[in-house]
Amino acid sequence: MKKTNLSDHDPNKIPSGKGRTVGVVIAEWNSEITEAMGDGAIDTLKKYGAEVRTIHVPGSFELTTAADLMLCNDKKLDAVICIGCVIQGETRHFDFICEAVSQGLTNVALKHEKPVIFSVLTTNDMQQAKERSGGKHGNKGVEGAVTALKMMELQKTLESNS
């Protein structure tokens, strides 16, 4: 199967972000990658009418705490997108960070009952990260923004049906 641009979405299937506020947390580690992803997420959210609040944290491990703090301290937030990049090295550090962040963000989403989007690249090398942060395979930040818009719409639909 040929790999394609994973960020290609049908704009007719992306819900409006009007009246929604989304937090974007961007890890500073591997900033060449995460800033490109952050720009993609922010541009996409604004394109669909959402208000955006952005903060930066030192690395991907801190995404969990920042997402929790944002949701605790800003009751207007409808979702949070967490952007990071962890590149495989020679030690098991990669495994520990990736597992902690994925589990941590899941816990934050469940605690606050709001979408918390995992836009963390977990790649084997820098080239793969570049390909997924605006390169030939799209931009994981754009994908995170589209996911946030869709999950906020899902939450709205489910809450109106109950």
Keywords:
about 160 residues; two-stranded antiparallel ribbon; Rossmann fold; 6 strands; 4-stranded parallel sheet
Oligomer: single chain
Which consecutive residue ranges, at least 5 long each, have pLDDT under 50?
A: none
Distance between the termini: 41 Å
Annotation field: number of helices: 5
> What is the CATH C-level name?
Alpha Beta
Overall morphology: globular
Strand content: 15-25%
CATH homology superfamily: Lumazine/riboflavin synthase
The radius of gyration computed from the alpha-carbon positions, rounded to a whole number of angstroms, is: 15 Å
> Which series of helices and strands comes N to C?
EHEHEHEHEEH
CATH topology: Rossmann fold
Helix content: 40-55%
What's the overall average pLDDT, rounded?
94
Q: Give the count of structural domains.
A: 1
- Largest sheet: spatial strand order: 2-1-3-4
Written account of the structure:
This protein is an alpha/beta fold and 162 residues long. It has helices at residues 31-47, 63-73, 93-112, 126-131, 140-161; strands at 21-27, 51-57, 79-87, 116-123, 133-135, 138-139. A 4-stranded parallel sheet has the order 2-1-3-4, sandwiched between helices. It has a two-stranded antiparallel ribbon with strand order 5-6. Helix 1 (31-47) links the parallel strand 1 and strand 2 (51-57).
Blueprint (SSEs and pairs):
Elements (H helix, E strand, L loop, with lengths): L20 E7 L3 H17 L3 E7 L5 H11 L5 E9 L5 H20 L3 E8 L2 H6 L1 E3 L2 E2 H22 L1
Parallel strand pairs: 1-2, 1-3, 3-4
Antiparallel strand pairs: 5-6
Helix pairs in contact: 1-5, 2-3
